[in-house]
Every structure is written in C-alpha cells, then in structure tokens.
What does this fold into?
Amino acid sequence: MLLLGIVASRMLARRVLAGSGLRRAVVSSRSLRNVLIYGAGCAGQQLATAMVHDAGMRVVGYLDDDRRLHGGRIGGLHVYSPQNLADLLLELQVTTVLLAIPSAPRKRRNEIVQTMLRHHVTVRTLPGLKDLAQGRIQTSDLRALEIDDLLGRDAVSPDGELLSRNVAGKVVLVTGAGGSIGSELCRQLIKSGPDVLLLVELNEFALYAVHHELSALLATQQHGEAGETRLVPLLASAREECRMREIMETWRPHSVYHAAAYKHVPLVEHNVAEGVKNNVFGTLVTAKVAAECGVDDFVLVSTDKAVRPTNIMGATKRVAEMALQALAELSARHPGGTRFCMVRFGNVLGSSGSVVPLFRRQIREGGPITLTHSEITRYFMTIPEAAQLVIQAGAMGTGGDVFVLDMGEPVRIIDLARRMVELSGFTVCDDVNPDGDIAIRITGLRPGEKLYEELLIGNNPLPTCHPRILKAHEAFLPWEELAPRLQSLAKAVDEGNVLPIRELLQSLVGDYSPDVRVVDWVHMERQAARQPPQVAAVA
It folds into this structure.
C-alpha cells in the first residue's frame, strides 16, 4: 500500500506540473486551444512549464527535428515528428504552433513557418536568444510573427569594435535624424556611448519624437558611457549652408551620418526639382561644410536604386555618390582630410517608404492589396541591420568607398504580400481559392519603377573585414570635371526646367534610363495650360 501511495503521488504531481490532470478538471476543454510547441529544448520546456497556468491554451505535445526524441516524452508531453504534420494537427485538433527555437538560423525558421502556414495554423514565436538571455521564459514573451522573421536569411551580425570605433566618446551628427533610417541610426549610436549626439532634422514633430524617445532610452541605461551622452536636437535643413556651417563650427563633430533625403520614388518623380535640391545639393552642401570643419568621417546613406537608375530618385542618389567620390579624391590630396564613403542597401522592412506598412493597412481594411507587378522583386533588410551596416561601414572607410551588403536572394513582392495575409490569419483570394479573404490587385508599374534592383554597377566587389559587407570602386568624374556640370544642374533646378534637369542627369549618370513620361506636376500643369482649348466639332 505504501509503494502504491508513493507511485500514485508522483504520477499525480507529474500530471499537474505537465499541465493536465487537475488543471483539465478545472478548465473546460472546449475553452482551451490546443497548441504544439516546436522545439523540445530548454526554451520549449520552460515555455511548457510557464503555460501550465495559462487559461487559454493547452500544450498537447512537442514537435522537434531531432529524431532521437521522437516517440519519447518530456515532462509528460509526447515529442512528435514534423513529418506527419497534417495527420497530427487533425488528430490533436491543434490550432496554434508556438516556435521555441531561438537559436535556429533564420533560414530554418522560415522553412518551418512556411510549412505551418500551408496547414493554416496560427504561428507565434519567442524572441531571439539575445532577448531571452536574462530571466525565465513567460507566456507574455510570445509574439505574433513579424514579416522580418521570414526574410529567409540570418541578420548580419554586427562587429562591436567597428560599431564603436568612430562613435565612442566622440561628437556625432546625424542628418535626417527623425526619419526611419536616421532614428534607428541614433538608437544604435547611443549604445556605443558618443559624447554628444547632434540630431539634425527639418520636420519639427519628427525631431521632437526622436529626441523624446532617445532621452527616455538614455534614462533607462544604468551603466556605461552611453548613459552620459548629451542629445542636442537641431532644426535645420541639410540644404542650408549657413545653418549647417553654424552647427558644425559650434560642435566640431568627428563623424557625420547623412541620412536626410527624399526616398519615395513616385513622389520624387512628380517633384523633380525638389528631389534634386535635397538629394544632390543637400548632400553636397553637408559634405563640403563637413570637410571645411574638419570632420573625420562622412557617411552617406545610399540606395540600390542608384544602380542603373530608371527614376529621378535613383539618379539623384547616384549623382550624390559621385560627388562624394570626387570630394574623396580631393580630400586624399591633403593628409588628415575627411574620409567620405557611402553605404548602399536595398529596401528596409517597416520604414516609412516600405510596402510593409501599406500592406498592413490594406489587410486591416479587408483588402485588396495593391501591387504594381506580379514579378517585381526587391532586396530586403531590417532597420537595425541597415543602421548597423552604415555605422560599421563608416569605420572601415578609407575614402571614396562604396559599401554594399550581401543581402542574399531578392524577395518577390507578391510572395511578401501572401505571407503577410497568412500571418494575419487570413487567406488570399485568387483563382485557386476564390473564397479567400484578401485579394491582391495588380495596378501596373508606376513611372520610374523597376521590376528588380541591383546593388553593384560593376562586377568587381571586394571583400572587407566584415564577412557580409562588400566594397566596390566604381567609376566617377574628377571634381574639376564634375563641378561645372553640377553648376549647370543647379541653374536648371533654380529655373524649374524639368526637361533640362533630366538631360543633365542623363549626361552625369550614363546608365540612367528615365521613363518616357514626364510626370512632374508643375511641368504637366504648364504643358496643359499651353494647349489650345478643344473646340467641339459641328455636325
């Protein structure tokens, strides 16, 4: 009797700790969602333990890739093979799968998620290892999958020494500090503890928002030099030479990160002169003032649209790159001159100009998702990746360098849209599934839009000390030849002559192929006003 009592007590305790037995007697099975935990390792076991007291979900087992665990039990829960997933989901009536594989490569996570989405189950995930380094895992740590979980490649690991080389204990200036890239640059920079961080931004509310956020972020840091960083919010336009000179002469920054630019392709195509003013001459003004004020490193945030551009935005960014390359050649003639470099990367997930926020809004509204072409592809990276790349490239620059990221394979935008629909718990309405929830409508390419983007003009990328960052030395005009052409471009911009502006951009960027349509709003309105009124024909 004693032996039976001991065995029974142990079995009872085991069932209680495993989330069954007494718990099932209290909570009706109809009110619980059956879930499987993908990953029977430490994170998965901690998650199962934390969910014992969860009144909304019931763990019915583990899924794991390790064949040695299949058929066994961990904490009273069976470990199943993912091979027979369809039958398993039906048998156990599972509606949700929880990913507890924080150490798995992103490529493997992507494969698992795609498999789950094909079976129409909800997928939630734990944060990465860095986020779980301290404390026990809680059910509150679970979050819905974000689209950056499905990039299909691992994030580029930053080099701590490169991140801090041009930042720690120095005065750093960021233009466009209130934008998507600029604000993330500031978040990454304060981790390395600059002495002063100058936030230069033209938009008043954007500057207020980023200053408020960074101040709160600094207040939570208890240790290290980063907690002593001084933030200086400065309202200014990168195009105003007097204001930029006033700022740089006052604080004498060591490093400048130039993120201020107009980046939205259709808007710049419709406002040609302003796009050139901001992207070309804003960069030129800031760079020349930086050189005159003894800035050590100047880093331009560029774009893959500068490679064989088909739009004004891409052409202006390529001219900005060429201007920096020419200035770098001038600077190299004088020891201790400013080191100019540029960082070129693809689309950034979640930025203000990204398709992701647009697709999210359209999904919330019930669709349809609007897509310009079914075959359009883009390279993607996360905002933190982009910011870290910019900072690290600035530390590696020797003058005139064009740095690009090995971004893996490009992503078809229609596939991205489908994934976002499925991650939101809906189905795509198409020919295969006419009863789906969200339709995808093709609207046609916009003026200046390309089907695909490239990162290199030439085919000679060179490796750097960072395994995922490449360097290109691309052709440019020397300053003596470039300067008079830029003066002609400035004159055309001041006069607002769109056709001469396009012609001058073509002469500067040999592989620029503009759209045959001129869609600048002012130009089209003027052209319409010159046309004689239509007279109705008399029968």
In short: The CA atoms of residues 89 and 170 lie 56 Å apart. Residues 20-29, 129-137, 222-226, 535-539 have pLDDT under 50 and may be disordered.
